[in-house]
Amino acid sequence: MKKGVMRPGHVQIRVLDLEEAINHYVELMGLIETDRDDQGRVYLKAWTEVDKFSVVLREADQPGMDFMSFKCLSEEVLDLLQHELVDYGVEVEEVAAGELKGCGRRIRFQAPTGHNFELFATKEQTGRYGVGNHNPEAWPRDLKGMKAQRFDHCLLYGPNLDQTYALFRDVLGFDLCEQVMTPDGKRVAQFLTTSMKAHDIAFIDHPEPGKFHHASFFLETWEDVLRAGDLISMTDTSIDIGPTRHGITHGQTIYFFDPSGNRNEVFCGGDYFYPDHEPITWDADKLGKAIFYHDRQLNERFLTALT
Ligand SMILES: [Fe+2]
User: Fold this and answer.
1) Which UniProt keywords apply (predicted)?
2) Residue 139 within any structural domain of the chain
3) Residue 33 annotated as catalytic
C-alpha cells in the first residue's frame, strides 16, 4: 500500500576517475551536468526529470553505490516515515539539508541487505531540460549519446531478502511485483515498486552485503536500445549483454559498464503495476529465462561482476 514514497530520487555512484566517468555518463549516456560541490562531486540529471539531479558521481578508490534515495510526497510524509523507521527498530541518521546541493534533509538507513538508502522530500526543481513546462516541444535537440530519459531503478545484491522486503513493504509501502522462488520456498530475487513501474528497486540474494549490480535508465523505444548498442560499440565501451529482453518485467534491455566497472542498463518497455496485481512468480530453475528471455541462460558476469 502506498505511503507517500514517490519514486527513486537519486543514486550516488563511486567512480575511480571523475573525468572518465563524466565522459561516460554525459557524452555516452546523455545525462546533463547540473552542478558540482566542494567535495568534488558531480551532479547529473536525465532530461525528462523535473528535479535538479538524479545521479551523483563521487571519486573514490573503489567503485560501487554509496546510497540510493527515494523522494517522498512531502516533509510531513518524511517526518512520519522517519518515526515509523525508528519504531520498526531501524537506526536512522539525519543528513542536513544542503549536504547535497539543492536537496533538503535526508533520512538515511541501512537495509538488511547492507545497502544504504535515504528518504527526502525536497529538491530544487530545474524542470525538464530544454523544453520546460510551458508549451513544451517533444524533446530538446541538443541531447547527447543514448539520450537517457530518466533514472529508473537499481538492482542490488545482498543477504536477508525477506527482512528487506518486510521493511520496504511494512514501513515504506512498496509492493512486490515479481519474485523468483526456489522449490523449498526461498525468495532469491524480489522486484519492488512504489509506483506503476515494474520495479523501483530490486534485490537478488547474495551472501556478500551491500553489492551494486546496476543503475538503470529509461529509453523510449526498442530502436533507442539498439542505437545504444551501436554507441557502445562506437565508443569501445565494455558491454555485458544485449540488446535483448528480460523475462522478469519483460523490459527490452542492454547492459554495459562504466569505466570504473559499475554496470549500467538502458531499457524500454516493461510491465506495469497496480496495487491489486498479484506478484508474478518465476521458479528458480527458470532463472536464465527470467533474466535473459532469449538466451534462457545467465552469463557468468551477471552473477559475479558486482561493485
Ligand atoms: Fe534493471
Assistant:
1) Aromatic hydrocarbons catabolism, Dioxygenase, Iron, Metal-binding, Oxidoreductase, Repeat
2) no
3) no
Domain encompassing residue 61: 5-120
Q: What is the model's pLDDT at position 303?
A: 84
**For 53-59, what is the mean pLDDT?**
98
Ligand 1 centroid to Cα of residue 135, in Å, is: 33
* 69's grid cell: 534515495
Does any domain span residue 142?
A: no
pTM of the model: 0.97
Distance, CA 211 to ligand 1 centroid (Å)? 14
pLDDT of residue 1: 67
| Residue 24 annotated in active site | no
Q: Is 265 a catalytic residue?
A: yes
In total, how many domains does the chain have?
2
Confidence of residue 112 (pLDDT cuts 50, 70, 90): very high
Q: Residue 132 has what pLDDT?
A: 87
Residue 157 is assigned to a structural domain of this protein:
yes
Residue 153 a catalytic site member: yes
- Catalytic member of 115, 153, 206, 213: 153
Which tens digits make up the pLDDT trace of 99-108?
Answer: 999 999 999 9
Q: Catalytic site residue 272? A: no
